[in-house]
Specification:
The protein is α/β, with parallel strands linked by helices. It is built from 10 helices and 9 strands. The protein has a single domain, classed as Spore Coat Polysaccharide Biosynthesis Protein SpsA, Chain A (Alpha-Beta Complex), CATH 3.90.550. The longest helix has 18 residues. The chain starts with 7 loop residues before the first strand and ends in a 13-residue tail after the last helix. It binds guanosine-5'-diphosphate and magnesium ion (MG). Magnesium ion binds next to loops.
Length: 288
């Protein structure tokens, strides 16, 4: 990669991450400062944290000019946080995201960025299910089973041929974000499927690359019947969004809102909400 490398915006969604986030911020800020020739910005997107994640982020902001944050009091979910973060897309040529727990090391994320920078695809995503991937500590057996079942539903509904839609590390060109923004409706963990399907439907290319992954303890994602039902419902909702019947289902909105409330899940966004792209205000202005 040359000195004219594309600028990069990396989003890290964070919920109650005071214990895991600090070293990850240091590792990413250091690695990209030394190894990435383009402009690099890292934005942590917090919401509703009940611990001192914000303190950890502020301390990292003191150490690294590349780090800043967005903070939302409402329980907008991981997908909701990423939707908000993606509104910063005009700041960079490439936009990506990664989990706060360090499951994806900076080297593996940089590999995605370089592939996207070489124009190998419009959107490059890490895959734990490809030959060549190195999974150091795997998820629990139940999580792996649920993940494969979820994958079967994703393939059945959307036929994308993507082996791992859920790995938390993805990078895309700014144009992808700008094109799919009004289609980003799911604020829960099915958000990734929403993003990838919208990108493919808009004609963008998606490339999976083998990755390095170390599952971390201290997951912030409750894995139970309620979350599984939530994910399935969201997939169904996404399928309907792209069907001719979608407009007819509008009267069911209150019922849908009730179900998501019962599931304790962030509700999907309406088309009006999704097409409202107000500029997000960063903790540090963009020249920082
Ligand atoms: N902003 C925000 N981030 C979240 C929320 N839930 C999970 N995350 C983040 O999503 C990422 C993945 O969560 P993690 O606990 O590692 O999930 P797991 O590894 O799949 O069990 C982490 O960066 C979390 O902090 C949320 O409600 N809001
Ligand atoms: Mg994790």
């Amino acid at each position: 990669m040359t000195a004219t490398a594309p600028s990069l915006l990396l989003l890290i969604p964070a919920y109650n991450e005071e214990a895991r986030l600090g070293p990850v911020l240091d590792a990413y800020a250091e690695h990209f400062f030394h190894r990435y020739p383009g402009r690099f910005k890292l934005v942590v997107v917090l919401n509703g944290c009940r611990d001192n994640t914000i303190g950890v982020v502020r301390a990292a902001e003191q150490r690294y000019l590349s780090i800043s944050h967005l903070d939302f009091p409402a329980p907008i979910g991981k997908g909701g946080a990423l939707i908000e973060g993606l509104k910063l897309a005009p700041l960079a040529d490439l936009v990506g995201y990664v989990d706060a727990d360090g499951a994806t090391p900076p080297e593996a994320f940089l590999d995605l960025v370089e592939s996207c920078g070489r124009n190998e695809a419009d959107c490059v995503v890490a895959s734990r299910w490809m030959e060549g991937s190195r999974v150091n500590v795997a998820q629990t057996r139940d999580r792996r089973f649920a993940s494969r079942l979820f994958h079967a539903f994703v393939e059945g509904f959307f036929w994308m041929g993507i082996r791992d839609t859920q790995c938390g590390a993805k990078v895309m060109r700014r144009a992808v974000v700008e094109a799919v923004q009004p289609k980003l409706r799911l604020a829960d963990l099915a958000f990734d499927v929403n993003l990838l399907y919208a990108a493919k439907r808009a004609g963008f290319t998606v490339l999976e690359r083998p990755t390095v992954w170390t599952d971390q303890s201290g997951s912030k994602v409750a894995f139970n019947f309620r979350t599984s039902l939530n994910m399935l419902l969201s997939l169904l909702r996404l399928r309907l969004l792209y069907s001719p019947f979608y407009a007819w289902l509008r009267p069911l909105r209150p019922l849908e809102a009730w179900v998501y409330r019962k599931l304790n899940a962030p509700p999907p966004r309406t088309s009006e909400e999704a097409s409202r792209v107000e500029p997000a205000v960063l903790s540090r202005d963009e020249r920082g």
